[in-house]
Amino acid sequence: MTVLVVGAGFSGAVYARTLAEAGYNVVVIDQRPHIGGNAYDHDDENGVRVHVYGPHLFHTRSAPVLEWIRRFGQFAPYEHKVRAKLPDGRMAPLPINLDTVNMVFGTNYETSAEVQAHLARVALDFPQPRNAAEHLYGTIGRELTDLFFRPYTRKMWQQELEDMAAAVVKRIPLRTDRVDTYFASEDTQLMPVDGYTALFAEILGHPGIEVRLGTRFERAMLKEFAFCFNAMPIDEYFDFELGDLPYRSIRFHHRSEPDGPPPPAPVVNFTDDGPFTRETWWDALPHHRRRQTGRRSVTTEEPCDYRDNGMERYYPVRTADGRYQTLYTAYRELAARETRMEFIGRCGTYQYLDMDQVINQSLAGARRWLAAQGSA
Q1: Given a cut of 90, is residue 134 above it in pLDDT?
Q2: Per-residue pLDDT tens digits for 218-228
Q3: Any idea where the domains of the chain sit in the sequence?
Q4: CATH class (in words) of the domain with range 2-35+204-243+321-372
Q5: Can you say whether the dihedral through the CA atoms of 318, 320, 324, 328 is positive or negative?
Q6: What b/e sequence results for 316-344 when a residue is b if at least 16 CB atoms lie within 10 Å of its CB, and e otherwise?
Q7: pLDDT tens across 331-353, in order?
């Protein structure tokens, strides 16, 4: 039995590998000319490894996910740090922590309890927040919200905080101590030593897997395969008959410059009203300086609508009224009529997913399908 997998990103690769190890022949297609999906990286002319579609930082609390991914490459510990450039040029830790609060309010707090008391004083009363603004105002108050989140939200989402679902900002942690790493200390944080593209080559490097790049999915393909796991946008598959599921996209502005002092952090976020959200200094990430050339590579990100960027979809839009989730649910009901196909991944299920979440969902989905076939 041969199975078709549409998409050579994390979801497609995990499905393909799991099915191949269970004895199935798998054909993986991707319309892009490379494997790895949005995690694709390569060494550029400066001898620096660049993540072409923005920084990908692996972190997880799942032991099974960690065990699975470590089968395919060597990983180095890496605790990611981000700084936010304030309007006056100062660099504040992000997520917000004790030092961020001191910097913004001119205080000299030394303990977590002092910061907690400060935030309790400035927080507004929103016991049941209806949107991102009310959640933030009820957690950190107006000044921190309007400095760190409101301008960023406008350019990232082209929405006001009042229009966004609270879940969008709940993903960002808040700290009251001096810990300045981006992800929680409970997470295992790693970077693949040889890069993500090499990692995907190992995952897809099974004799039961055939990869066809530069190949667009067509419905006629379904006749050639016993089943299809499809990571393409679900609304596009149905020719947008119920309407568009919107996404935000990113224009990546890559630049080369002479080597210089290290940046304040590998990633710097911008809090101003300009068009850019953040920039990444690639040689500041571990194992990303591949050879010495005297130059380094920096990428600045400019959000836009996906329709203005070659239909490149990165971030599903989640509004406070849930209208796009309702639209996705209607598409999912259409998809339920497909007897030999299942939608997977970020675009197939209209979710924003971290890499470990994609791996976990895909392992579970593939094993569930195998069990239904009596192949688990």
Answers
A1: yes
A2: 999 999 999 99
A3: 2-35+204-243+321-372, 82-170
A4: alpha beta
A5: positive
A6: bbbbbeeebbebbeebeeebeeeeebbbb
A7: 999 999 999 999 999 999 999 99
